[in-house]
Amino acid sequence: MAADRERSVALMFSGGVDSTVAAMKLLEEFDRVHLLTFRNGYGHYGFGRTRRRVRELVERYPGRFVHVEESIRGLFERICLSTLAEDYRRFRSAFMWCMGCKLAMHARSVIYCRQHGIGTMSDGSAADSDEMVEQMLLSVSMIHWLYADHGIEYRVPVYQINREEKKRLLVEQGFFMGIPLLDRHLGIQPSCIPGELYYLPYILFNKAPGHDEETVARYISLKRVLVDEIIQAAGPACRADDRNGA
Amino acid sequence: MAGCCGGKNAGKPITRGRYALGMAFFAAYHAAVQLALSGVGLVSPRFRPVRDFHRRYFAHLFKETCRREGISLIGNDCPLERPPEASRSRTEWPESHS
Predict the structure, then answer these.
(1) What is the model's pLDDT at position A210?
(2) Nearest Cβ partner of A81 from B49, B56, B90?
(3) What is the mean pLDDT of residues A203-208?
(4) Does A88 lie at the interface with B, CB-CB under 8 angstroms?
(5) Which chain A residues touch B52 with a CB distance below 8 Å?
(6) Is residue A171 within 8 Å of residue A164, measured between CB atoms?
(7) How many CB pairs under 8 A join A and B?
(8) Most distant CA atoms of chain B, gap in Å
(9) Which position among A84, A108, A206, B90 has the lowest Cβ density within 10 Å, counted as fewest Cβ atoms?
(10) 8 A C-beta contact, residue A195 and residue A97
(11) Option in A156, A196, A212 nearest B5 (CB)
(12) Is pLDDT of A244 > 90?
């Protein structure tokens, strides 16, 4: 059973360039990859794009992927929206929408891993997207400790891979690449209106997003208590002999 | 802004045309979202805090953008040849974590 556990991994999956390459990288080491896709219920749309990407992966690697798509609306409301006005006054930035959403996804991922006996979690965080609050090295490090404290290893398999290299890998394998715009590809993963609004000044005017390391660290630390409570309330991790390794 | 978080393009100067077009798009997008949230807020109470939050955020950001805070225009202000040092710092990801 222990061997089964080691062969399964979970991956937070949107279908974008980073998470698709991460999925393929994980196949080099694991037998099965659980692709976790979350919807927060607030201007987060286009999940058909993720499902199309899953189909592409399954066609190329049959039997190697399990796709789970679910709503984290309740968690998102509890972690982020319930204190939105108060947090905005405190932090003077809207980064907490994106960070709060990501924390809700990570909380749900920890619960999923514990329920399914999966010992390794990963996502497509990338150093060349570190203007995004949840992909900053600091955020990734703090998330690493969240998983570690719940007995789960956290990996970021494409963190240091150059974006051009990742795109080349996908093009070579004939994946749908959507509509290229600057260094992004439109229509290959879900969109988030609040996220677009937050990064709009950066995209339009090269204006740095309104967060810094100290503020982000304070926010994550503040929410970490609640995240731990949510995870504990979801029940204990399954016993080793309950694990099916799938 | 502490030593991080700028992104690779932060601080790079833009043309006046891009600024003008950007402002139009920026204002239109936010206004459309505020309008939509106002409508949805009438029928669904759960969107009301979001609507109020967006209104405050948009007002704050719009003033900042009009004052060109953190925005450099080519041939104006202090033209930057490269992003500020703060936005370029990046610590290598430890081998053991990757």
Answers:
(1) 85
(2) B49
(3) 92
(4) yes
(5) 85
(6) no
(7) 116
(8) 52
(9) B90
(10) yes
(11) A212
(12) no
Residues of chain B contacting A77 with CB distance shorter than 8 Å: 46
Does the complex come out with an ipTM higher than 0.90?
Answer: no
Q: Does B11 touch chain A (CB under 8 A)?
A: yes
* H or E segment and range at residue A83: none
Residue A129 CA to residue A19 CA, distance in Å, equals: 13
The closest alpha carbon to A54, from A189, A150, A180, A173, belongs to A189
Mutation target among B5, B26, B33, B47 for the A interface, most CBs of A within 10 A:
B5
pLDDT per residue as tens digits for the range B40-52: 999 999 999 999 9
Inter-chain residue contact B1 with A94, CB threshold 8 Å = no
Contacts of B69 in chain A (CB under 8 A): 207
State CA A210 to chain mean position distance: 21
The pTM is what?
Answer: 0.87
- Do β-strands A191-192 and A44-45 pair in parallel, antiparallel, or remain unpaired? antiparallel
Q: pLDDT-based confidence at B54, cuts 50/70/90?
A: very high
Mean pLDDT, chain A, integer: 92
Instruction: State pLDDT tens for residues A37-57.
Output: 999 999 999 999 999 999 999
Q: Residue A91: enclosing H or E segment and its boundaries? A: helix A84-91
Q: Which of A105-114, A116-125, A183-192 comes out lowest in average pLDDT?
A: A183-192
